[in-house]
TrEMBL record:
Residues 7-135 form the Nudix hydrolase domain. Pfam families: NUDIX. The keyword DNA-binding does not apply. GO terms for molecular function: 8-oxo-7,8-dihydrodeoxyguanosine triphosphate pyrophosphatase activity; 8-oxo-7,8-dihydroguanosine triphosphate pyrophosphatase activity; 8-oxo-dGDP phosphatase activity; 8-oxo-GDP phosphatase activity; metal ion binding. Coiled coil: none annotated. Its EC number is 3.6.1.55. SUPFAM superfamilies: Nudix (SSF55811). It comes from Streptacidiphilus pinicola. Its cofactor is Mg(2+). Keywords: DNA damage, DNA repair, DNA replication, Hydrolase, Magnesium, Metal-binding, Mutator protein. This is 8-oxo-dGTP diphosphatase. InterPro entries: MutT-like, Nudix_hydrolase, NUDIX_hydrolase-like_dom_sf, NUDIX_hydrolase_CS, NUDIX_hydrolase_dom.
Amino acid sequence: MYWVTPAVRVVVGAALFDASGRHVLAARRSAPEALAGRWEFPGGKVEPGETVPAALERELREELGVVARAGERLPGACEVRPGLELQIWTASLLAGDPHPLEDHDQLRWLDATTLDSVDWLPQDRFALPHVEQML
Ligand SMILES: Nc1nc2c([nH]c(=O)n2[C@H]2C[C@H](O)[C@@H](COP(=O)(O)OP(=O)(O)OP(=O)(O)O)O2)c(=O)[nH]1
């Protein structure tokens, strides 16, 4: 008798800070229908063989058209669904202006006073106190 540990796939979301470090980017999902209209940290699934920072930098290029550098992982994680774990990592914007190229229909830079002004996906809320401390 043996047990197989199910593989957990990571979704990485970016707490992307602007050059001043005083604003973080929130993105409003346009799909799928169940998530549309809710706000999240832009990102996506880590591909097999890819590191989490590399996935985060790739996703920000694809989704927002920007060059960003991954920083550190924020404490905690959330199970989006069985086998899928959401981690939030910091990222700094190196080049480009973010545009909602894929998966999102609105972007918003938030500061410490407006961080809670959007309708965050519940799964993302664990990261908000950590992000707030950094703004
Ligand atoms: N990117 C992102 N996804 C999140 C967050 N919070 C959250 O629950 N999710 C969920 C939504 C999706 O079910 C899943 C990520 O899927 P995704 O569609 O963004 O991933 P992906 O770009 O790699 O897309 P695909 O390979 O499935 O086409 O995680 C978040 O802050 N950022």
